[in-house]
Amino acid sequence: MSTLAQEASRRRTFAIISHPDAGKTTLTEKLLLFAGAIQIAGSVKSRKAERHAASDWMEIEKQRGISVASSVMQMEYRDCVINLLDTPGHQDFSEDTYRVLTAVDAALMVIDAANGVEPQTIRLLQVCRARNTPIITFINKLDREVQEPLNLLSEIEDHLGMEAIPFAWPVGMGRAFGGVFNLNADHLHVFTSGKEHRSDNDEKLPGLDNPETERRFGENFTKTRDEIHLIKEAVSDFDHDAFLAGKQTPVFFGSALNNFGVQEVLDALVDMAPPPGPRIALQRTVEPDEPKFSGVVFKVQANMDPAHRDRVAFVRVSSGHFQRGMRLKVARTNKEIRPNNVVSFLSQRRDLLEEAYAGDIIGIPNHGVLQLGDVLTEGESLQFTGLPFFAPELFQAVEVKDPLRTKQLRIGLTQLGEEGAIQVFRPHLTSGVLLLGAVGQLQFEVVAHRLRTEYNVDARLSPSRYNLARWVTATDEKAMKKFLETNAANIAYDVVDAIAFLASSPAQLRVAQELNPGIEFHAMREHGGQVFATM
C-alpha cells in the first residue's frame, strides 16, 4: 500500500447531527475527552461559568448555550486521525449543516431518548440519505425518564427509513438506569455518573445469565434479558455493506453528560465508519490516493480570531498530499496561492499544519481570495458540485444607524454572506439598500450581533415586503432580458451575482412562472459550477 493510500485509510471524517438539545455538543465534548484531545470537558449548560464547550467558540454561542456555527476538531485515536465536525442543531442554521454534510464520509446521529426522532433530525437525515452517507446512532439521556428502547428502534426505522441494529441494550432508565449490555462483548457495562473526567475503572459484569447481575438489578435486568432475546430473533444481523449504503444504522445507548457509552461510540467510528472515498467532480472522479492534491472549500468563517479580522476557508482534502507552502490553483479564478499559515483545529484553538491527506479538514486564512465552493488543485481545473444554497424564506432590509459606518456595514455583510451565515441581496433598482435573506429568524439575530461585536456596526433591521425568492436562469438571452425589464422591481443579485426573483407571496411567484415559460425558477443553487436545481 502506498503512503498516500495508507494515510487516507487512517482518516475518519464525520459530522455530528441532531435536533436542538439532544446533547450533540455535549457528546462532541466527551468524544474529545475520550480521545485524549482535552483533559476536562466543558458543558454548554453552565452558561455563566468560565468554561464553555470547546466546540462553541462564538460569543453568542457561549451566551445562549447553543451551537450556531459548524466547528471542526481533529484528534488522534487508536492510530486513526479523526476529523469531527460539530454542526448547528438549530433548524435556522440548517444550510450550514447541509454544506458540512458534503464534506464528511459518515454521520453520528444523536437522539434524545425522551423525545425520540424529532423534525430537524428527519430533515438532516434526508440530506444524508440523498448522499448515502453511513449513519451511526447514539440514543442519549438514558439517565432520565425516557421512551421504551423498542419504541425508539421502531421510530428510527419508521421515520428514517433504515434498519436499526442495536449493538447494546439499556438496563432501566432514569434513577433506575443500571447500565448498558454490550451485545457483542456479552457484558453489562455498569452505569456510574461522572461529569468532567473520564474513568478507566468502569465495572463490567459478564454474561446474560450472570446471577450477580440479576441480584443487583432485579426486574429491570430481567426485562432487558427478555428484550435482548427478542431482538436477537427479530432484528437482522449487522451488514457492513448495508451500513455503508445508508440502509442500516448501528444503535448505541448512553448518557453523554455522564461520560457513559461514549467509548463505545468512539470505537464504532474507528471500526465501522469508512475512510475517504472517491469524490465526483464535473470533469472526472477523483480518488483519495491520487498523487496530486485537490480540495474543496465547504465553509468560510469570518473573524474566528477577531483581533486579526481574518477569514478562514475550511477545505476538505479530496486527494493527494498537502504540504505547507505548496503552490495551489484556485479553479474559479485561475489564480495561484501559496498558503504558509495553514491550520488544523481544536475548535477555536489553531495549530500550524505542515501536511494533510485525503479526508483531513484544513483551514486557510485569507482575505477574500477563497469563497464557498472553490476548488484548489496543483494545476488541474476541477469543479466539485453539491454545495447547496437554499432560497430564503424570510427577508429583512438592513440599514446602518450611523451613516459613517456604511462602508463597514458592506464589508461585514459581504464577508458574512460569503461565509454563508446569511444571504445578501442587492435589489436591481435600489442600489443603496441591501436585503438579508434567511432560512430562519435566528439568523438575523446572529448577524446583527456579529455586525455589532465583530465589525463595530450597529445595524437596523426592518421587515421587507418580500417573503420568498427563486433564482432564475434561461437558455434564451432575449427571454431573460425581457423578464428582467418587466420585473425590475422584483429582481436582485446575490453575493455571486446570481439573479434572483423576489416575491411577496406564492401567488405572485406562480403568476410570474405562468407569464414567463422560458424562465426557469430554482429553489436551490449549488456553488461549484453554478449548477441550479429546480425544487
Task: Give descriptors for this structure.
3 domains; 27% helix; 7-stranded mixed beta sheet; 535 residues; 30% strand; Alpha-Beta Plaits; single chain; 34 strands; alpha+beta; Rossmann fold
Description of the molecule:
This protein is α+β, with helices and mostly antiparallel strands. It folds into three domains: 12-69 and 90-272, Rossmann fold (3-Layer(aba) Sandwich), CATH 3.40.50.300; 279-384, 3-Layer(aba) Sandwich (Rossmann fold), CATH 3.40.50; 388-533, Peptide chain release factor 3, domain III (Alpha-Beta Plaits), CATH 3.30.70.3280. It is 27% helix and 30% strand. The strands form eight sheets. An eight-stranded antiparallel beta sheet has the order 28-25-27-26-30-31-29-32. It has a seven-stranded mixed beta sheet with strand order 2-3-1-4-5-11-6, sandwiched between helices. α2 (24-34) crosses α9 (262-272). The chain is globular. The protein starts with a helix and ends with a strand.
Give the beta-strand count.
34
Radius of gyration: 25 Å
Q: Write down the overall geometry.
A: globular
The proportion of strand residues reads 25-35%
Main sheet: strand order? 28-25-27-26-30-31-29-32
Count of runs of 4 or more consecutive helical residues: 13
Give the CATH topology of the largest domain. Rossmann fold
Overall average residue pLDDT:
85
Q: Give the class-level CATH name of the largest domain.
A: Alpha Beta
Structure described in brief:
The chain is an alpha+beta fold and 535 residues long.
Topology:
Elements lengths: L2 H7 L1 E8 L5 H11 L24 H6 L6 E7 L2 E7 L7 H8 L4 E7 L6 H12 L4 E6 L8 H12 L2 E4 L1 E4 L7 E4 L4 E4 L13 E3 L4 H24 L5 H5 L3 E6 L8 H11 L6 E2 L4 E2 L7 E9 L8 E9 L1 E3 L4 E3 L4 E3 L5 E4 L2 E4 L2 E3 L3 E6 L8 E3 L9 E4 L3 E7 L5 H13 L4 E5 L6 E5 L2 H14 L4 E5 L4 E6 L3 H10 L4 E3 L5 E5 L2 H10 L4 E3 L1 E4 L4 E2 L2
Parallel strand pairs: 1-3, 1-4, 4-5, 5-11, 6-11
Antiparallel strand pairs: 2-3, 7-8, 8-9, 9-10, 12-13, 14-15, 14-23, 15-22, 16-21, 17-18, 17-23, 19-20, 24-33, 25-27, 25-28, 26-27, 26-30, 29-31, 29-32, 30-31, 33-34
Helix pairs in contact: 2-9
